[in-house]
Amino acid sequence: MTQPTPERIESLLTRYDFNGAVCHIDAFGNGHINDTFRIVVAMPDGTTSLWILQRINTVVFQDVAALMNNISSVTAFMQKKIAARGGDPLRETLTLLPSTDGHIFITDECGDSWRVYRFIENATSFQSADSNIFYESARAFGNFLQLLSDYPAQTLTEIIPHFHDTPARFRAFIRAVKEDKLGRAASVRREIEFLLDRENEAAALTALLDEGKLPLRVTHNDTKLNNVLIDDRTGRGLCVIDLDTVMPGSALYDYGDSIRFGASTAAEDEPDLSRVEMSMDLFEAYTDGYLETAGSAMPPLEKELMPMGAKMMTLECGMRFLTDYLEGDHYFKIHREGQNLDRARTQLKLVADMESKWSDMQHIVARFS
């Protein structure tokens, strides 16, 4: 996908009605998937309005129509819920701007797909956080679950099929070990044995979901801290963004991945494992915030299994990193030799640390439930 020229972007924008004149366009954000631009529009009354233009990465997301239908349906549903409770739908969820011919995305002469969102002003996304910001991000993701608790999740398209099918991920891992294409298995025997020892847990969540013992949810599937906007004035979690991976799943996937990524004391590829553990302070802050907003929509078993959600998402991620290392680093981008192995090791260290703190994790969940 070649970088679009300013002239090409200006031509695209003529297909939208901003109720004013476009006066400035600049690249925006630090996302790695889509190309994002901020559009400044001069309004007739002398004020300005801000918009986001995104080129959707059709290499990653090949069914753009299904992806955009998911986003449009979910955001429209949330907007009604937010308005009904007296909130501000224009700030508390994303708002798509249809093109002048009524389409929620457009395709240009080069075959690229584009969409426009209203820019949410006076709000900030964070790359790292203290326990207060982490707590607010949890409130935002919990609110996301609460708003969509009665949405018919089965009607959404599974944009990335089997994304959190942990048993399928385990089978792929076993296959990579057996094939050992690069002769790396002998050097990571300890990591392989760690995962094999936990094979019986791989279906802990998927089996309950299949049996209907856990509710099928609208899940975000990319619950990183920077996918929440924090209100600049109030400091409260305001809006969940980046809805490309919204699809059916379990709330425990979203909660668990937040803990996996956000409660770790070290970077995901930290070579020094002595620096890696799960912060109980951050675990407690996130659990508190998540249950504060989502708790009333969660049945007892779903709450009880929150520690298992954290463990399974961490185990699955470590397994995926190790599988990629064994297969030659073809899925996750690396910037140095052994980076995927370091990533795998940090995740497995976090799993072991969670296991050592299991009773404390359960106690915290029970306290805030």
Detailed description of the structure:
The chain is of the alpha+beta class. The chain folds into two domains: 6-121, Phosphorylase Kinase, domain 1 (2-Layer Sandwich); 131-368, Aminoglycoside 3'-phosphotransferase, Chain: A, domain 2 (Alpha-Beta Complex), CATH 3.90.1200.10. Helices cover 43% and strands 13% of the residues. The protein contains 13 helices and ten strands. The protein has helices at 6-13, 64-84, 89-92, 131-147, 166-179, 189-196, 206-210, 251-262, 280-294, 300-304, 306-327, 339-356, 358-368, and strands at 21-27, 35-42, 48-56, 106-107, 113-118, 123-124, 217-219, 228-231, 237-240, 247-249. It has a five-stranded antiparallel beta sheet with strand order 1-2-3-5-4, with helices on one face. It has a three-stranded antiparallel beta sheet with strand order 6-8-9. Strands 7-10 form a two-stranded antiparallel ribbon. Strand 1 and strand 2 (35-42) form a beta hairpin. Helix 9 runs parallel beside helix 13 (358-368). It is globular and about 65 Å long. The mean pLDDT is 95. InterPro entries: Aminoglycoside_PTrfase, Kinase-like_dom_sf, Pseudomonas-type_ThrB. Residues 107-270 form the Aminoglycoside phosphotransferase domain. It comes from Hydrogeniiclostridium mannosilyticum. It holds the Pfam family APH.
